[in-house]
Design goal:
Blueprint: E1 3-13, E2 29-40, E3 43-49, H1 50-53, E4 62-72, E5 74-80, H2 94-107, H3 112-128, E6 131-137, H4 142-154, E7 158-162, E8 164-165, H5 178-192, E9 198-204, H6 212-224, E10 229-234, H7 238-247, H8 258-264, E11 272-276, H9 282-291, E12 294-297, H10 299-304, H11 312-317, E13 321-324, H12 336-348, H13 356-370, E14 388-391, H14 397-403, H15 409-419, E15 425-430, E16 433-437
Parallel strand pairs: 1-4, 5-6, 6-7, 7-9, 8-9, 9-10, 10-11, 11-12, 12-13
Antiparallel strand pairs: 1-2, 2-3, 4-14, 14-15, 15-16
Helix pairs in contact: 3-4, 4-5, 5-6, 12-15, 13-15, 14-15
The structure holds guanine and zinc ion.
Guanine (GUN) binds near residues 206 and 236.
């Protein structure tokens, strides 16, 4: 048996702070200024005050991170690994951005060697940024999903991906068919879903690039494998919405919304994650909530591609499960601290505020709930998998100087999310093992 302990300031959430009146927000989390996290065989076995737990430590080795803040590993609820090499591509909105930059970049993932090289770089970027779990788009090529599964398995990461389904409105070199989508997804599910900490997501790119027949295949795969996820895009950009609604006008009832198209095909499940949702109407929001599906909020991407301002508060009001996502390469940073920085501004531009507590909940337990993984990750509950990040409040001269000028935990968290990025990640642990240490 392996047993180790970590001494640091420790924070994790017990519930959504936005569900509590502001005066009782303190009840949403546990914080130990001088804390101890005990890990046994990769699982959390104890968390609390150092002084209280130290006497029971015996000869358990203790890693000393005093002066640092230890939080559950960040979770990225929507990201594209084949887009790692085209992040920050200039000038276009969604549909022309896909044609100009995205599809050509994904073409190269027909080559398994290229896929493995980028998978390695991608996973090391996640870990350098403190992200320990992600829901990831591969490319249309089965070997691209295999490459990422292989590498994530070697790191023992909890990671979900899937081969992309796309059989129309895309270059020939990047399309499959309903039949090949079915056969290849099925094979990948049988091979990878539930192996180590891996999971499979049935991944139709978006309604625009899948035929009705292929969306029916997606539904069939989910029916046959109900513990798999459904991962797709919805209502990101105005021209996209207009196009999709027209594309499905004959297949679906008149006036069917973009989200309604997925509902028509039975794709709104408790394990469905829809990226963006920037353009969703109120009744769409209500339907997402009713089906217990999740939305991945992608702040840096929504700003970078000019897609719009996600209605965060409205989504919270109707009780939608919300996850935080980078959406690299539409997003411009692998850092969830930077996603939160931009999320704050998106909410602010709508006359509201995203508190630091809400923000850190969103990046950890909130995202775990969005992925239906809160029984395993996202907090330091006893028996959870010990994925965590060590944040350094003195990572840069400015962070150090600014942190001296903070009065409480909430202010320190807010400074981490406005000024922090990969430099603030001192170390990242997966199942109790260190997988990244800042140079
Ligand atoms: N919609 C369909 N494909 C994509 C993609 O690759 N990125 C984003 N941001 N939106 C999409
Ligand atoms: Zn995306």
């Amino acid at each position: 048996m392996s047993r180790r302990a970590f001494r640091a300031s420790i924070l994790h959430f017990l519930q959504d702070p936005s569900e509590l009146p502001h005066a009782r927000a303190r009840e949403s989390y546990a914080y130990f200024e001088d804390g101890l996290l005990v890990v046994e065989n990769g699982l959390v076995s104890d968390v609390g005050d150092y002084a209280e737990h130290a006497p029971q430590l015996g000869d358990t080795p203790v890693v000393d991170y005093r002066g640092k803040l230890l939080v559950p590993g960040f979770i990225d609820c929507h990201v594209h690994y084949p887009q790692t090499g085209m992040i920050g591509s200039y000038g276009e909105e969604l549909l022309s951005w896909l044609d100009t930059y995205t599809y050509p970049a994904e073409r190269a993932f027909a080559d398994p060697e290229h896929a493995r090289t980028v998978a390695d770089l991608f996973l090391s970027e996640l870990l350098r940024n403190g992200t320990t779990t992600a829901l990831v788009f591969a490319s249309v090529h089965a070997c691209s999903a295999e490459a990422l599964f292989e590498r994530a398995l070697a790191l023992n990461m909890r990671l979900i991906t899937g081969k992309v389904l796309m059989d129309r409105n895309a270059p020939d070199y990047l399309t499959d068919t309903p039949q090949s989508a079915y056969t290849e997804s099925k094979r990948l599910i049988e091979q990878w879903h539930g192996r180590g900490r891996l999971g499979y997501a049935v991944t139709p790119r978006f309604a625009g690039s899948s035929s009705p027949e292929q969306l029916r295949v997606a539904k069939r795969l989910l029916d046959e494998h109900p513990s798999c996820w459904l991962h797709t895009h919805v209502a990101e950009n105005r021209s996209e919405v207009a196009w999709i609604e027209q594309l499905y006008a004959s297949e679906c009832a008149p006036g069917t919304s973009y989200l309604g198209v997925y509902e028509h095909f039975g794709l709104l499940t408790q394990r469905s994650v829809f990226a963006h949702g920037v353009q969703l109407a109120d009744d769409d929001f209500e339907l997402v909530a009713k089906r217990r599906s999740a939305i991945a909020f992608c702040p840096t991407s929504n700003l970078f591609l000019g897609s719009g301002l996600f209605r965060y508060r409205k989504a919270k009001e109707v009780d939608i499960k919300l996850g935080l996502a980078t959406d690299v390469g539409g997003g411009t940073s692998f850092s969830q601290l930077q996603s939160l920085n931009e999320a704050y501004k998106i909410v602010k531009l709508q006359g509201d505020k995203l508190s630091a507590l809400e923000a850190f909940f969103l990046a950890t337990l909130g995202s775990a709930e969005a992925l239906e993984l809160d029984g395993k990750i996202g907090s330091f509950r006893d028996g959870n998998e010990a994925d965590f990040v060590v944040l350094d409040p003195q990572a840069t001269p400015l962070l150090r100087f600014r942190m001296e000028n903070t009065r409480d935990l909430e202010e320190r968290l807010f400074v981490f999310m406005t000024l922090g990025d990969d430099r603030a990640i001192e170390a990242t642990y997966v199942a109790g093992e260190r997988v990244h240490a800042r140079a």
